[in-house]
Amino acid sequence: MSLQQLYQIIPTEVCLSCDVCCRFLNKDSHLAPIFTENETGRLVSKGIDRTLFKEQKDGKSSQITLIPHEDYYICPFFEPETQHCKIYASRPLDCRLYPFTIMFSQDRNSVVLGVDMLCPYSEERYESDSFQQFMRHVIDYVESEDVRSQILENWSLIGEFQDTVKVFHTIRHAIEPFNT
Fold first, then answer.
1. Pairwise CA distance, residues 172 & 116, whole Å
2. What is the pLDDT of residues 6-60, one digit of tens each?
3. Would the pTM of this model clear 0.85, i.e. be above it?
4. Helix (H, G, I), strand (E, B) or coil at 9
5. How many helical (H) and strand (E) elements, i.e. helices and strands, does the chain have?
6. Nearest to 114 by CA among 129, 127, 97
7. What 8-state DSSP symbol labels residue 168?
């Protein structure tokens, strides 16, 4: 399964009417999107300014630098007037996954996959058969060798535990590199 094979379950009209994604309360939000080394390189090769990306502790991934908008901050690729993403076709894995998120468990003994319940669609549809089926697809996607290796190589993609995220899967073998 390639990195491009994860489709978006949330209908476009729902996303375009929401005000959760791409907006952040503070400039240094740890929730701002993380780009893998390859994703950053691809965007920079297309003319995106490298200074928009802050290198992360893993030495490979980068976090986007948020910009002020009204009384909050936004991703510089987000167009608040239209609710569109300027790089939607090449958005990073971190954004492709949302409303699903990869994070450390609360006790930091494992890496888990969860769904952000701040997403209105997730909150409304979590119990539906179609959403549960899609969750199994996301598990298969994240557990695929190429995606799991991208996560481990760019380990800053693994976020800190969030209370708003409902955990539904522990990622196999993902914590081992952090226990050494």
1. 20
2. 888 888 888 888 888 899 999 999 999 999 999 999 999 999 999 999 999 999 9
3. yes
4. coil
5. 6, 11
6. 97
7. E
